[in-house]
């Protein structure tokens, strides 16, 4: 039914979701979100390769998307740190 690449991608998404749901540390939440996005990108690259796109096109697209996600992540963590001086998510709740 599913091949190995699809199962690996889906497991990365599930592991990321579990990490987001089970921690209070912003950095660990971000790492969980990264695992989820990488699993999604892996599924996307698999879908693109099945559609006939060249490897260069797939790598270029995924490189741009990954760079944008990384910059957004670092920016979010820095803004959170400068505002609250902690990386605990419960500090934001009041």
Automatic annotation (TrEMBL):
InterPro entries per record: NUOK/Mnh_C1-like
Cellular component annotations (GO), alphabetically ordered: membrane
Location relative to the cell: Membrane
Transmembrane segments: 29-48, 60-82
Protein name in UniProt: Na+/H+ antiporter, subunit MnhC
Record bears the keyword Transmembrane helix: yes
Keywords: Membrane, Transmembrane, Transmembrane helix
Keyword Transcription regulation listed: no
Topology term for the membrane: Multi-pass membrane protein
Primary localisation category: membrane
Organism in which the protein naturally occurs: Thermogladius calderae (strain DSM 22663 / VKM B-2946 / 1633)
């Amino acid at each position: 039914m599913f091949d190995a690449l699809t199962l690996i991608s889906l497991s990365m998404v599930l592991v990321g979701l579990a990490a987001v749901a089970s921690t209070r540390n912003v950095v660990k939440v971000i790492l969980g979100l990264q695992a989820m996005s990488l699993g999604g990108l892996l599924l996307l690259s698999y879908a693109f390769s099945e559609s006939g796109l060249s490897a260069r096109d797939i790598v270029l697209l995924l490189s741009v998307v990954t760079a944008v996600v990384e910059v957004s992540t670092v920016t979010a963590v820095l803004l959170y740190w400068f505002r609250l001086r902690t990386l605990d998510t419960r500090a934001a709740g009041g």
